[in-house]
UniProtKB/TrEMBL annotation, chain A:
It is a multi-pass membrane protein. SUPFAM superfamilies: Cytochrome c oxidase subunit I-like, Cytochrome c oxidase subunit III-like. NCBIfam families: CtaD_CoxA. Keywords: Cell membrane, Copper, Electron transport, Heme, Iron, Membrane, Metal-binding, Oxidoreductase, Respiratory chain, Translocase, Transmembrane, Transmembrane helix, Transport. One of its GO terms (biological process) is electron transport coupled proton transport. Pathway: Energy metabolism; oxidative phosphorylation. GO terms for cellular component: plasma membrane. Residues 40-558 form the Cytochrome oxidase subunit I profile domain. Residues 1-10 have a biased composition (Basic residues). Belongs to the heme-copper respiratory oxidase family. The lineage of its organism: Bacteria, Pseudomonadati, Pseudomonadota, Alphaproteobacteria, Rhodobacterales. It is found in: Cell membrane. This is cytochrome-c oxidase.
From TrEMBL, chain B:
Belongs to the cytochrome c oxidase subunit 2 family. This is QoxB Quinol oxidase subunit II. Residues 121-236 form the Cytochrome oxidase subunit II copper A binding domain. The gene is qoxB. Its EC number is 1.9.3.1. Gene3D superfamilies: Cupredoxins - blue copper proteins (2.60.40.420). It catalyses: 4 Fe(II)-[cytochrome c] + O2 + 8 H(+)(in) = 4 Fe(III)-[cytochrome c] + 2 H2O + 4 H(+)(out). Keywords: Copper, Electron transport, Heme, Iron, Membrane, Metal-binding, Oxidoreductase, Transmembrane, Transmembrane helix, Transport. It is found in: Membrane. InterPro entries: CcO_II (IPR045187), CcO_II-like_C (IPR002429), Copper_CuA (IPR001505), Cupredoxin (IPR008972), CuRO_CcO_Caa3_II (IPR034236), Cyt_c-like_dom (IPR009056), Cyt_c-like_dom_sf (IPR036909). PANTHER family: CYTOCHROME C OXIDASE SUBUNIT 2 (PTHR22888:SF9), CYTOCHROME C OXIDASE, SUBUNIT II (PTHR22888). The chain crosses the membrane at residues 50-74, 86-111. The lineage of its organism: Bacteria, Pseudomonadati, Pseudomonadota, Alphaproteobacteria, Rhodobacterales. Its main location: membrane. CDD domains: CuRO_CcO_Caa3_II.
Automatic annotation (TrEMBL), chain C:
This is Uncharacterized protein. The chain crosses the membrane at residues 29-49, 56-80, 104-130. The keyword Transmembrane applies. It comes from Profundibacterium mesophilum KAUST100406-0324. Keywords: Membrane, Transmembrane, Transmembrane helix.
Length: 860, 336, 134
């Protein structure tokens, strides 16, 4: 993104009119008739589909609700599994469940809590709340949220359902090979494919949340006045982007081994199970903070309201969020302290694990400081926050202990760890989340939850939790390992386990009370007041009747707590005195603003209800789920249909050429409707997605170097190497394809549509030839991927890169069609920008692959 | 014993308090004790780690009370507001100052333990291979030939023993909490652990890395002996079988083909799939500590191992009559 | 291009850079951390036996640590200037104007450099107390 491109001088796209608005402009009254008409039009544009068509809705309020309820449902199921386990462990040598079922249960409990509850819950809640915090109408890509939700639902039901058939994964949520690669039945494949599918959906949601935070803030909301929640969304989104891809790369290698016997983790053929551990925990540890930070973000919204004061130490909290985000990537080996790595290596990870205490401490003390500055009113949400603090500090302190490598040698994989991780997750996620649900419930549903039931739920859950998990520290120190389906009666673990089981049922009763309060019908209850807690942030401006439009007009924001600090803002929003008070064309619109200073840039038309997202999710599901049963042809057909659905969806609803170049956004400001390149939300979406993709690729490259470091001979003596001449030709062809793509964009911009078309014909042909050459370069010399990990990893890189080039070809063809059918013109060229950006990443992947496959083995 | 006398004197003065204290202490101790407990450590490494834990526990308890006490104080007791300046001080002092001091000290202390825990062994090497779900062992003394055994670890006090750990198919982890920390066992590579037992006794170890269906049933007894006793045991262990290879039980053993999987040194049974049984009856437990070592348990195990260890490779011998099983078990118990 | 546009563009470029500046301290920590870890991994796997003396490795990491600390210090200094605390005495930056935003980014970057400095120092502690590849 060079400076000049960002600021292409373009009188068609530069905003016109006064900005920022003056006080006089905002004081201008609006004709009541006009106001009413505007309201009607807005209501119509944002209306929810009725009846059974309701499920085609894409509004963030609906998708967010489904998403969070589904995640909550999966949590209840995973919780029930834990109760079954607790019954089994209540007494020694119990036979309530079999060893096999127990192993499935703990695998599913962990996997579901992590992949189907904790991460999706963050995304669900953020989709639900973020537009409210930002006074935005909706998320930037509503259909993407809906697609992500349906993918999550299908994948979740598939993974969860497997246990009903006794076919669930049974190798632990960490799926260590060789145990998991050797595991018979489809369990491991269910885990790999089902959860990869959900991981893709998670990344999609992360991309959307990042773009939403960067580009859809209200005018004037510069980065220093964003609600803290938005900062956390940014950090957590970024972490998902860099943490999930290594796991996806690992899944890719793993599934190649399961399906095609490529020996990535098989030590008998040069593979190494440790590589999976590295990839898994490079994901797995940041994952813990991906779960923890959003809940801290909720606390950061609740605490200032309780104190009735702005947060103290805003910059400090931003520091701790960003700092934790970074440091969390330097901790992964503390899950591998007992694998026999050199002590010095372990020391680095002990040190980083201890360093993370500092940002975490700052975070907590900033809340305490805020409470000290304010006059605290203890409300129900604050009670849950207090419980969270009590539990989390205990979990954090045991975390400090086990970060010391030698101590971890003693308690690693014992019940001490089970206790520790549940303390951090209950204190760092469950309790703040419930606090947030009590706090935001009036915003989400316009009703309030019961204070009496809330207290009951709290005390049951709090005592039940501690009765369950506090003794487990001792159980672990007395030597009880994790993941055991039974234990003998003569080692002194029996009474501790009985206590834990009793506690688990008390905690379950607490959850039941909470779930009842959450879900009981509240139709006859009066509506909650508009701002029941007297909060200061924008979400509390939401009207008590939900019209689907988010805020009536999008305000100009200059403070961190506009409802406290900007007098009359709510009335002005209601009266439509701010931006976008109208939907003249009957279309759904929201504002796109600049990244740092939130200057208005564009009126973006967002997509409305659609079935195609559902179809796309269903077919994507087919493409991931069918291979589990080794049904490959229908899987490929399903994949093709998914791609067609996505192309149809993009073609019919994105980058639509508008009827006019600019429109009045209110307050005399005229903004473009269509922008392309780095100013546009879509471009950012592609850019951020590809950062994640590049991370996955980097993980594969890490794998190559890992094999080299970990084994004495890699590549082994006398190995066949790839044909470097053919590989060089492949790189040249693909570079030419990239050049043609870039050329088509520039030529089109200069009005040479004909030449651009020619380029777009040449580009996919060159790319296909490139794929062919790349495959030939490893095929011709006869690299046999099942024989040893070296040829397997070379093939792996070629397959990965070819798949990306293949996706690039589809995109080039899409652009070709767009140019031919007039969807792209010299002025309206967003698809060309976005696809070219994709190709920048592809060519990087291609060149690195070519270098590693053709040149590196000869150097090593 | 002056200690005890003093106790009795106090007992005379304040009986209830002392009784309560003694009961509590006794209960506290017995609550933490156990054959597999990290408390009451009997190895140099575990003792070091126990001290480390106690230090950390005390520190953690103080910090927990301080943080939560402060929170309680500002939300419930002293709810009037303080100046922002002071509040900023709270962030800097509590968020940076406090952890910096505590964590740095802990890090230096904790990491400096590591070289001790990974000190080189004094000579005796025990190779342990994790199998599904039992332990193959081989003792390699400085002098003398290696001795193969299984499912039990015997160690001398007073010297540091090296364990060379590996695995057959999946990852396991070797752990004797009373003696020290654990170390994972990987197929295709060797990891090293050294331990220095101090007090003789019979302890329990267990696999700590999830290794499949019967992970829970992969344990062993660790017998720590005085050096002389250990040498005597090792010598006996190196000898061929001591039981009568012509006895009726032996006939069943060989007739059923047990020798295809199990070795009995000094006979034609030389299978290496399952554990070496040459001195089976000297072990403290059966089937990787899933069962006690006695005649009844042996008979039950041979009849149907799957009942006691789901997924085990050994087939059931339920076609044998009760008498045959009893005869076989009786003979196996003679494998001293 | 008018003069106003020119000034705006310059300001924008500067601010966009300062969002990235936020990450400079932590990125330095990350590079130092990754380099120390990789070097140790390769050294212990390829160059040294478990009980070998690794003084040279420790010295290299030590030198790297000093370099990293200096780099973080320089980034921190630049951020400190952007924060401009000595002139304004401001640490809250709660208002939505260009000046507050400018100083806020400086402030947050300064603090992040502080944490990165501590993190980098911590990375060096194991090098002080552990002297072999075991």
């Amino acid at each position: 993104m060079s400076k000049t491109r960002t600021h292409r001088i373009d009188r068609h796209t530069d905003p016109e009119g006064p900005y920022p608005p003056t006080e006089e402009m905002l004081a201008e009254p609006i004709d009541p008739e006009l106001r009413k008409a505007q309201g009607e039009r807005l209501k119509k544009a944002w209306a929810m589909p009725k009846g059974w068509r309701y499920i085609s809705a894409v509004n963030n309020s609906e998708v967010g609700k489904w998403y969070s309820l589904t995640a909550f449902g999966f949590m209840i199921l995973a919780g029930i599994m834990s109760l079954i386990m607790r019954v089994q462990l209540a007494v020694p040598e119990n036979d309530f469940v079999s060893a096999d079922l127990y192993n499935q249960l703990f695998t599913m409990h962990g996997s579901a809590m992590m992949f189907l509850f904790a991460v999706p819950m963050f995304e669900a809640i953020s989709i639900l709340l973020l537009p409210g915090f930002l006074g935005a109408r909706d998320m930037p890509f509503p259909r993407l949220s809906a697609y992500g939700y349906w993918a999550f639902l299908i994948g979740g039901i598939f993974v969860m359902g497997s246990i009903l058939f006794g076919a669930a994964p049974d190798s632990g949520w960490f799926m260590y090979p060789p145990l998991a690669t050797q595991s018979e039945g489809i369990g491991s494949d269910v885990w790999l494919l089902g959860l990869s599918f959900i991981e893709v959906a998670s990344i999609a949601a992360a991309v959307e949340l990042i773009v939403g935070t960067l580009k859809c803030r209200p005018p004037g909301m510069r980065v220093n006045v964003m609600p803290l929640y938005a900062w956390y969304v940014l950090v957590v989104g970024g972490m998902i982007l860099f943490a999930f891809p290594p796991l996806i790369a690992g899944d890719f290698l793993f599934e190649m081994e399961r399906s095609f016997d490529w020996p990535f983790f098989d030590p008998t053929r040069g593979g190494d199970p440790m590589l999976w551990q590295h990839l898994f925990w490079i994901f797995g540890h940041p994952e813990v903070y991906i779960i923890f930070l959003p809940s801290i973000a909720i606390a950061a919204m609740v605490v200032p309201t309780a104190a009735q004061r702005p947060i103290v130490g805003y910059s400090w909290i931003v520091l701790s969020a960003v700092g934790t985000g970074f440091l969390s990537f330097g901790l992964w080996v503390h899950h591998m302290f007992t694998t026999g790595l050199p002590a010095l290596s372990l020391g680095f990870f002990s040190a980083a694990s201890e360093a993370v205490v500092i940002p975490t401490g700052i975070q907590l003390f900033a809340f305490v400081a805020t409470l000290m500055v304010g006059r605290v009113k203890m409300s129900l949400p604050m009670l849950w926050i207090a419980g969270a603090l009590a539990i989390f500090t205990a979990g954090g302190l045991t975390g400090v202990m086990i970060a010391i490598a030698p101590f971890d040698w003693q308690v690693h994989d014992s019940y001490f760890i089970v206790a520790h991780l549940h303390y951090t997750l209950f204190g760092g996620m469950v309790f703040p989340l419930i606090a947030g649900i009590y706090y935001f419930y009036p915003f989400m549903t316009k009703k309030t939850m019961s204070v009496r039931l809330g207290r009951w739920a709290f005390w049951l859950l709090f005592t039940g939790f501690n009765i369950t998990f506090l003794p487990m520290h001792l159980t672990g120190l007395k030597g009880m390992p994790r993941r055991v389906f039974t234990y003998p009666g003569d080692v002194g673990w029996d009474w501790l386990n009985m206590i834990s089981t009793i506690g688990a049922f008390i905690a379950a009763a607490g959850f039941a009370v909470f779930a009842y309060d959450l879900l009981r019908p509240k139709g006859r209850q009066p509506k909650a007041p508009r701002n029941p807690w007297n909060g200061g942030t924008l979400e509390w401006s939401a009207e008590t009747t939900d019209h689907g439009w988010g805020s009536r007009s999008i305000p100009y924001v200059t403070t961190r707590y506009p409802l406290w600090q900007q007098k009359g803002i709510v009335e002005r929003m209601d009266e439509g005195r701010y931006y976008l008070p109208d939907a003249e064309e009957g279309l759904r619109e929201t504002l796109v603003t600049s990244v740092i200073d939130a200057k208005p840039l564009q009126v973006m038309r967002v997509t409305g209800p659609a079935w195609v997202t559902l179809w796309a999710a269903a077919f994507t599901g087919g493409a991931f789920i069918l291979p589990t049963f080794h049904i490959y042809v229908p899987a490929i057909i399903s994949g093709v249909l998914a791609i067609l659905c996505i192309c149809y969806w993009l073609w019919t609803s994105t980058a639509i050429i508008p009827e006019k170049t600019k429109k009045d956004a209110g307050l005399g400001l005229k903004l473009p409707i269509y922008i392309s390149g780095p100013g546009a939300a879509g471009w950012w979406g592609v850019f951020i997605t590809m950062l994640g993709d590049a991370t996955a690729f980097a993980s594969l490259i890490f794998g190559v170097f890992f094999y080299w470091t970990a084994s004495p001979d890699f590549p082994p003596e006398g190995s066949i190497h790839a044909n470097w001449i053919v590989m060089a030709a492949a790189a040249a062809l693909l570079t030419a394809s990239w050049g043609a793509m870039l050329g088509s964009r520039q030529l089109n911009m200069n009005g040479r549509g004909d030449l651009a078309t020619a380029c777009l014909v040449a580009a996919p042909l060159l790319a296909l030839a490139g794929i062919g050459a790349m495959i030939l370069s490893v095929w011709l010399p006869g690299l046999e991927p099942t024989s040893h990990v070296y040829p397997a990893v070379m093939w792996g890189l070629v397959v990965w890169t070819s798949a990306h080039v293949g996706a690039g070809v589809i995109m080039q063809l899409y652009c070709l069609a767009a140019v031919i059918f007039g969807k792209v013109t010299p002025r309206y060229d967003a698809p060309l920008w976005n696809v070219t950006l994709f190709w920048h990443f592809v060519i990087l992947t291609v060149l690195v692959t070519a270098a590693v496959v053709a040149a590196l083995p000869r150097v090593l | 014993m002056p200690h005890r006398r003093e106790g009795i004197e106090i007992f005379a003065r304040k009986p209830t308090a002392v009784v309560a204290g003694a009961v509590f202490a006794a209960f506290g101790l017995s609550a933490c004790e156990g054959p597999q407990s990290a408390f009451g450590a009997t190895g140099a490494d575990a003792i070091q780690l126990e001290t480390l834990f106690i230090v950390m526990l005390v520190g953690a308890a103080i910090l927990w009370v301080a943080v939560n006490g402060l929170f309680f104080y500002v939300t419930r007791v002293h709810t009037t507001s303080i100046s922002r300046r002071l509040a900023n001080g709270v962030i800097i002092g509590g968020g940076i100052g406090l952890p910096l001091v505590v964590v740095t000290a802990l890090l230096v202390y904790g990491l400096s333990i590591m070289p001790d825990q990974r000190a080189e062994g004094d000579g005796l090497v025990v190779k342990v291979t994790g199998e599904k779900w039992w332990w193959r062992t081989e003792y390699q003394p400085l002098a003398g030939a290696p001795v193969v055994s299984a499912n039990e670890i015997r160690l001398p006090t007073g010297s540091r023993t090296t364990f060379e750990l590996t695995s057959e198919r999946v990852i396991h982890s070797f752990w004797i909490p009373k003696l020290g920390g654990k170390m994972d066992m990987f197929p295709g590579r060797t990891t090293v652990l050294t331990l220095e037992p101090v007090t003789p006794g019979i302890y329990r170890g267990q696999c700590a890395e999830f290794c499949g269906e019967s992970h829970a049933l992969m344990a062993f007894k660790a017998v720590v002996m005085e050096p002389d006793a250990f040498d005597a045991w090792l010598e006996a262990e190196a000898a061929p079988i001591q039981a009568d290879p012509q006895a009726p039980g032996a006939e069943i053993f060989f007739g059923e083909g047990c020798g295809a999987c199990h070795a009995l040194r000094g006979t034609q049974a030389n299978g290496a799939v399952g554990p070496d049984l040459t001195h089976l009856a000297t072990r403290e437990s059966l089937a990787a500590a899933a069962l006690p070592m006695n005649r009844e348990a042996l008979a039950k195990w041979v009849r149907n191992p799957e009942t006691y260890k789901p997924g085990v490779k050994m087939p059931a011998y339920d076609h044998l009559s009760d008498e045959e099983l009893d005869t076989l078990a009786g003979w196996l118990m003679e494998l001293k | 291009m008018t003069r106003r546009e020119n000034v705006e563009r310059q300001e924008f470029a500067e601010e966009r850079a300062s969002l990235w500046k936020l990450t400079l301290g932590p990125v330095t920590w990350a590079v130092h951390f990754a380099a120390s870890y990789s070097l140790t991994a390769v050294w212990c796997a390829k160059l040294a036996a478990p009980q070998d003396d690794i003084t040279l490795l420790r010295l290299i990491i030590g030198a790297g640590t000093i370099v990293a600390l200096v780099v973080i210090l320089l980034f921190g200094l630049s951020a400190w200037r952007q924060w401009n605390y000595t002139q304004t005495g401001r640490a809250t930056h709660a208002f939505g104007d260009a000046e507050n935003r400018h100083e806020f980014l400086g402030h947050a970057a300064t603090l992040l450099c502080g944490v990165s400095f501590i993190g980098t120092l911590y990375t060096a502690i194991p090098v002080l107390v552990i002297g072999s590849c075991t």
